[in-house]
């Protein structure tokens, strides 16, 4: 019981400190769920912003008997004039699904929207993430058009 008594005040203090800086951030970490084509991947997601408009994003997803590490570049800009918390983004990256002792290489473009909740350290997004298979077993589709993801991140 003692660890919980320590954890709750520590979490509240951390959340209060991050809320003070909710409008600008360098890093965001959380979860991503990706779905489409009868396959769901879910796991951890991390984004590091280098500038106001460019970021490096990485994910480690699990699902369908696969482990899927991903790495990509994302360009962000305000989505709607006068709305500070909506951002449109597009990017390009690679993924390497590992399953059955094999690995594939996927080219992963992305196009999406993200929303920063005011006065909180939370960010929610929706992305279209098709993939083009560069290598691997020819029994799978080369281009997968209908893949989408929802990231939910804690910004700091």
Automatic annotation (TrEMBL):
<keyword id="KW-0732">Signal</keyword>
<protein>
    <recommendedName>
        <fullName>Outer membrane protein beta-barrel domain-containing protein</fullName>
    </recommendedName>
</protein>
<feature type="signal peptide">
    <location>
        <begin position="1"/>
        <end position="22"/>
    </location>
</feature>
